[in-house]
Amino acid sequence: MFTKTLLIDNYDSFTYNLYSFLSDVNGCPPTVVRNDVDWCALELTEFDNIVISPGPGHPASERDFGISSRAILQGGLPTLGVCLGHQGLCQLFGAHVVLAPEPRHGRNSEVFHNGRELFAGLPSPLSVVRYHSLAVEDLPDELEATAWTSDGVLMGVKHRLRPLWGLQFHPESVCTDHGHELLANFRDLTPTRRKGSAPRPRRRPRTLSPYVVETQRIERRVDSQTVYERLFAHGPNSFWLDGSSTVESEARFTIMGDASGPRAEYVTYSVADGTVLVHRSGVPDEKRRVPFFDYLDEQLRVRAVPRSQDLPFPFDLGYVGYLGYELKAEADGNAQHSADTPDAALVFADRAVVIDHADGSCYLLALSEQAHDPDNRDWMRRTARVIYRMPVTTDEAHPARPLIRSAADPRMTLRHNRETYLSKIRTCLENIRVGETYEVCLTNHAQIDVEIDPVQTFAYLRSLTPVPYAALLRFDAADILSASPERFLRVGTDRVVESKPIKGTRPRGATAAADDALRQDLLTSEKDRAENLMIVDLVRNDLSRVCTPGSVHVPRLFDVETYAPVHQLVSTVRGTLRSDATAVGCVRACFPGGSMTGAPKIRTMEIIDRLEEGPRGVYSGALGWLSINGTADLSIVIRTMVSRHGTVSFGIGGAIVALSDPDEEFTETLVKAAAMRRALTISTGRSPARAHSVSPQTESATIDRAGRRLSRAELGGVEVWVCPGVPEPMANAELVLAEALADISHVTTPVVVDLCTGSGAIALAIAHARADAGVHAVDVDPTALTVARRNIERQIRLGESPIVLHETAVTAPNLLPGLNGTADLVLARPPCIPEDEDLPTQCGEYHRRPVVGGAEGLKLARQTIVAAARLLHAGGSLVVEHRPGRFTTALALLAENKFFANATTHFDNAGEPTHTTCARTSVQYVPADVGPEPDPCAPLWAGIARNGESRGHRPTIDRRK
């Protein structure tokens, strides 16, 4: 006996998870149709019941619900609506669908139920996963509530007379308990009319081609970069897929080659005109108008070979390259934007060198129509001779870091500036709030007009952080430099498919205890787990489209993988390909990777197209190889630079969910941009030479950054970079971030960077980027209090790392009393001009704060210094920032304050004061509830009013009380 289900797909990204569960409980796969098919063309007599899937939008929308309404009202079969299906069922009988108390996406809840029918035999409460922004209220008499949350949100209904049921939560989620049992109960509520066994998929015939792969093993441990530079760096359309990570066992293999072989091809594709262009050496280019995935599948089929049994890796030659994001137009997406690079570019590699880093051997691979092909044997002899002449290495070389160097400082431009990007994040949140999407992976596009040396830059990029999927593609279309840690898809020789989505990141801690605390924080973060779960459920859905029903599973959920600079929350999803499916078919079903789109994928890609207003190109596509033996291994294209025509570009972004904070999300993009920029090199036609390098022991140095003087000072082992203030907030402060990070990337001691104007979030970003050096910073501006509290409480809880406070607000000790006595360093800029007594009391704004003079200015300056004193612990340090020509006398007189000693005013090369440093000498705090009186600084400020004659000098005062 088996039950046949009609599964109506409301263009959701979890429908095929229901498909998989229903296949298990029914004994045969359901028939899936989308909600815009012709209802009259469906033969309902072929089915026993109907399941209506979740989906984006509102059930009142014809586009969103389609034939689902007719299935409920006219189907005449037992029907189960899930999420949107549940809402539509309720609305059709008179209930109201309204905004839920809060959006709940990828988050667990306890659900109580009546224990009957769908819930028969299940515990109450039941732990379930919810994905919804809308909820049902005001049930009519025809409908009966069957399940609800502790706060009264309806989770289940049944029709009192008809065989209709609804579930607001998702029984098919990997984190919902007893999901199979729920669907089995629905099956048992269905009269079964069918006997026999379900039909099995037909095995796709596979015809082996006349090709053979010849191999040769060379026992010699050599450096990957040396092999690439000696053999392939100057060849046409070369590739270097670098395996240098210890996290992935198969990342022990490096694959490299080019398109110089006699059977090699360089293949590109344009979505806009649907044309495949095939370039072969010595013959005219071939053009074919055919969908690219169809072309790729055909070519791999006609060249198919059995796996080489004597190789320890699955790669048996084949296609190597990238699939750009805009190829989504051939995988359920729209052709909305056109990239300036090909939408796909791959080399058909008929020859390659593979390095096994585990045993130090090299393998030479060559494709031919016959064994012992003379041309291939000659190539192997010549290649082996070159390898044997290379020096033996014990470890991979770590090249000197190439830095930006040019006469004119290259500037980074973003497609969307801060305000525009924040606005787009808010639009994402509104789409989430009204149920159009659960998660949006929004990205920005960064561009720098600069020439690079691709090989040297990639060599540095791979040395920064060994990752499983580092890659260099030197193609005619562009140079691609990737440091991706994320697996998109691997198809093994056993036809097992694996994807490893990454969502959730934390920096490494300065000590073992702090590192473990950060790891645990990531592991238990509700926001990060929700992001990760949404993509895990999406990937399960995509794989279920091509895998044997019941084979898709999650062997590792919410696993923390640790790399040199970060911890990442990674899950592993696996399944077994159906006998009629291929590796290319699997890629098409899953493309683009859900971790770069969000969910539901199709609707969310439409939102992305509207918001991003331009193509992503190579970024967020896939990169790697598809072999002629039916295997494949591809990464998600993140942390990747594209260099062409004197311009380097890269994508930066993050997942926006209901719990996202716009400022935090934008800051995260800046951190990612800065990390990419650190690896850049400007090609000068000679080997890269080290740019300016400032030793941590150097007492002071100044670097001119496009007219902004950036000064450095030592402060108790902490290196402080200060950019002088300017009268107006920096409109391009986000661009300065990457420049400053490039300047300090060599520092090994704790670092604090303050870009002064408009820089609170940027100071946080820089500290986050340098967390490997034990740096933590907190912006305690009241406007960023939510962010500040979250960061500061974590740092106080860890108790291991330096705490740095930036832009101390006068009210900060009152707003965050737990900070008192905790700070190692305070960066302060009193929002006033106390020396200018001739200024009016109110004279405009400086960084969104009033700029005042006279007595009011003295009062605000005094309060700021007192606030700093409260925050610092004994031995902590204060840095007071200057506007050029301001505060000189006041800052020098800090030495007379009982709170501070060793005050030194610092100047740049042009003689402008940049900042003053001094040390906290006691812990005589001013209680938060007392306020600034009695004023310990009164003598100081009285002296300021009398000593204007000191202005313009360079006082260095070293006094101890």
Automatic annotation (TrEMBL):
Residue ranges of the Chorismate-utilising enzyme C-terminal domain? 418-672
Q: Which residues form the Anthranilate synthase component I N-terminal domain?
A: 225-364
Signal sequence span is none
GO terms for CC? cytoplasm
Q: Which controlled-vocabulary keywords does the entry list?
A: Glutamine amidotransferase, Transferase
Documented EC number(s): 2.6.1.85
Under the heading CDD domains, the entry gives: AdoMet_MTases (cd02440), GATase1_Anthranilate_Synthase (cd01743)
Recorded superkingdom: Bacteria
What is a single molecular function from GO for this protein? 4-amino-4-deoxychorismate synthase activity
Residue stretches making up the Glutamine amidotransferase domain = 6-186
Query: Methyltransferase small domain location, by residue?
Result: 738-831
Against PROSITE patterns, the record matches this protein to:
GATASE_TYPE_1 (PS51273)
Query: Which terms does the UniProt entry file under GO BP?
Result: 4-aminobenzoate biosynthetic process; folic acid-containing compound biosynthetic process; L-tryptophan biosynthetic process
Give the family this protein belongs to, as stated in its UniProt record: In the C-terminal section; belongs to the anthranilate synthase component I family.
The protein's matches in NCBIfam families, at most eight in alphabetical order, are given as: pabB, trpG_papA
Tell me the protein's name: aminodeoxychorismate synthase
Native species of this protein? Rhodococcus jostii
